[in-house]
Amino acid sequence: MRDVVITGIGIVSCTGEGLDVHLAALSGAPKTDAETFAPYAVHPVTAPEWDRQIPKKSDQRQMEAWQKLGCYAAGLALDSAGAKEDAELKNRMQLIVAAGGGERDYAVDGQILTGLRSAENPGVFLNEHLMGDLRPTLFLAQLSNLLAGNISIVHGVTGGSRTFMGEESSGVDAIRIAKERIAAGQDDIFLVGGAYNAERPDVLLIYEMGGFLWKKPYAPVLSRPADGGGMILGSAACFLVLESREHAQARGAEPLAVLSGVASGRSRRKPGSVEQALHGLSKQLDGKPDVVISGATGVKGITEEELAALKDIAPGAPVHASGDVIGHTMEAQAPAGVALAAGLIANGKASDALVTSIGHWRGEGAMRVTKA
Amino acid sequence: MALRDKQGRPLVAVTGMGVVTSLGQGKDATWAALTAGKSGIHRINRFPTDGLRTTIAGTIDFIDVEPFCAPMLSERLAMLAAEEAIGQSGLASSEFPGALFIAVPPVEMEWPQREALAKASGQTGEITYKDLLKAAATGEFKKWHDLFIFGTVADRVADRFGTKGSPISLSTACSSGATAIQLGVEAIRRGETDAALCIGTDGSVNPESLIRFSLLSALSTQNENPEGASKPFSKNRDGFVMGEGGAALVLENAEAAMARGATILGYVLGCGEKGDNFHRTRSSPDGSPAIAAIRQALDDAGVAPDEIDYINAHGTSTPENDKMEAMSCTAVFGERMASLPISSNKSMIGHTLTAAGAVEAVMSLLTIATGRIPPTINYQVPDPAIPLDVVPNVARDGNVKYVLSNSFGFGGQNTCLVFGAEPKGA
């Protein structure tokens, strides 16, 4: 099996852009917007200068926020891996994107719902208004695989692209499959990551229906369970360039860290199952973590179980919640956790990092990042 | 018999297949109708079609789910197809010994649910998302969180069949079903698992999804004669017809399958994929990414172009796809393309979108197994720009050992698979 190294990182969130600002923010409180969607707080992205990674305005216009964020972070990752200008390399670079779906037209939705109430024939009313009021290209901003499509178009990454769905788990599994394909020699280099826009009422709606959102004044992720628990969604994107050590060496790319292992599973959730699952995953990774980047949601029950497991798995290691840096970003949480871990290791602040991603509803993942 | 391919990788055998389409439940029903040249396209009666440019589809109307919505129907189609496939394979039906790769349509809350939330909010004036959120906060709609998140269909299928590990839900638009198979093949070749359950499912014909495609001018508007609307490779083709379907394949390490005495239905010999950065919905005019994907699949299979006996086309019936596909195949297969049979299942079942690659994989394998090539129906006006043997209108017999199945999708997705009766061993 070949070693898999991390040679590029692109990250953008409420904390800003680039790895350094995110590492500096590991201790601190993230930017929070408690007004726009009150009583729901979100961690709003610090909008980057889009032109720097998405030069064509026509491309920017074709994308909604989640895609622009992802495309921007993918560009940062390619830059950081020294791959941006290498057309031959990008032509064979594989892409795995962890994604949900895109934004809706909220005004149109509201108008239709208002009109439906008094419509003589609701089905006909719905048809007429969807046909007349939806922007034709909005569909392309909604389709899950169109973040990957936009990355291909904007950055020329065209080896092959796959989009994984399924909330937090899809981020872990995107990294897992990329790693396994590289380790087994099936491919040499991947761009892997995810993007999430939290500043949209339709996603708040989904998680509020499930009762998962934190509605009190900001509190750090790990202290929320004591007060009922809940998550604060964040707008962010993170992409990683992963490749075999040999491949990185051959092109003169400096590894930031090694992706030593990725383990994921699906427990049938009941009290204790998350704690047990995390123990099992950590056994597979076989590390001695000196730092933990936790993707914890702050949701009651599973967050405490994770912390209990971490006490055994990583005794004495500092635990940083990535949610306190970027918010909870669903599909992007695992890639961002790996990015933070790789950053700490590259800066000599740690040598064996455990990254966790316990889904708010299902799916458990753990990743191990070590010194290059 | 060699149980590894020329590159020394484990051979990947197919030991179970299941299908549901608008032509019927079960692969036998679909296959019988497909080889009889029967269309499953009909007028939509699931919802009012007044004011729509397209009023036809290959919906599956013989299966009911509650509440009726895309994730519920997609889940049901996946379950039915997987039950049939696992049943045929002889593997345990509640402890499937391998991973799940499932292509599912992107889901989101639908209009009936939005309306229910709007009503529950008590708002009598203009409704906004604030009102929907207020209704959501009551906790009365908790089940809809699970129903409308992206990982749920896979989770339920994994629960039902006891697949191992974290299930993978994926989308590569209209090539998703083929990608699910490709992921399974790769996992078996890596030695990670001896078995994989690969599924493509799509039950998403609802007003908004139909209108979205309609607004992109992707759909046929030849509503007068629904059964005649999908006419791949014909000069008067004018868009695709949406269809629903589910298909499942049990893939196994051939050595493990033989060791347990399983019947091998065929082999997945090769996979190829190539991204296209030309446009969000259109393919590179020179067809180079599709050509690369076909060549890569052949290379991966160790099968020469001359050995392919039949192509199961993507063949959507859109002006652009069919032209690009014909050109790409001609670039790879050369002069032989004029006589190499290529047909489109979509002429009969419509475009089953997320499921298409998996449905068509099963049909490709049945073509190999039965020596019967399904036709491209509705082929009355040949397109002089596409001088191919599209197996017009009537099925025919043929000795088919190796099949290429093409899948192309929005977002520059190109995925091609090569199936064989026998392995190309070392």
From TrEMBL, chain A:
GO BP annotations of the record are: fatty acid biosynthetic process
Taken from the record, one Pfam family name reads ketoacyl-synt
- Single annotated GO MF: 3-oxoacyl-[acyl-carrier-protein] synthase activity
From the UniProt annotation, give the residues forming the signal peptide. none
| Keywords, in A-Z order | Acyltransferase, Transferase
Q: Where is the Beta-ketoacyl synthase-like N-terminal domain?
A: 2-248
Q: Which InterPro entries match?
A: Beta-ketoacyl_synthase, Ketoacyl_synth_N, Thiolase-like
Might you give the EC number(s) for this enzyme? Answer: 2.3.1.41
- Name by which UniProt lists this protein: 3-oxoacyl-ACP synthase
Organism per entry: Microvirga vignae
Source organism phylogeny: Bacteria, Pseudomonadati, Pseudomonadota, Alphaproteobacteria, Hyphomicrobiales
UniProtKB/TrEMBL annotation, chain B:
Where does this protein come from, organism-wise? Microvirga vignae
List the keywords (alphabetical): Acyltransferase, Transferase
Q: Which NCBIfam families match?
A: PRK06501.1
* Gene Ontology biological-process annotations: fatty acid biosynthetic process
GO CC annotations, alphabetized: cytosol
Q: What class of enzyme is it?
A: transferase
Pathway participation: Lipid metabolism; fatty acid biosynthesis
Question: Do you know which Pfam families this protein is assigned to?
Answer: ketoacyl-synt, Ketoacyl-synt_C
Residue ranges annotated for the Ketosynthase family 3 (KS3) domain, each copy included: 9-421
- Highest taxon, organism lineage: Bacteria
This one is known as: 3-oxoacyl-ACP synthase
Q: Check the record and name the InterPro entries matching this protein.
A: Beta-ketoacyl_synthase, Ketoacyl_synth_AS, Ketoacyl_synth_C, Ketoacyl_synth_N, PKS_Beta-ketoAc_synthase_dom, Thiolase-like
E.C. number, please? 2.3.1.41
**From the Swiss-Prot or TrEMBL record, what is one GO molecular function term?**
3-oxoacyl-[acyl-carrier-protein] synthase activity
What is the organism lineage in this UniProt record?
Bacteria, Pseudomonadati, Pseudomonadota, Alphaproteobacteria, Hyphomicrobiales
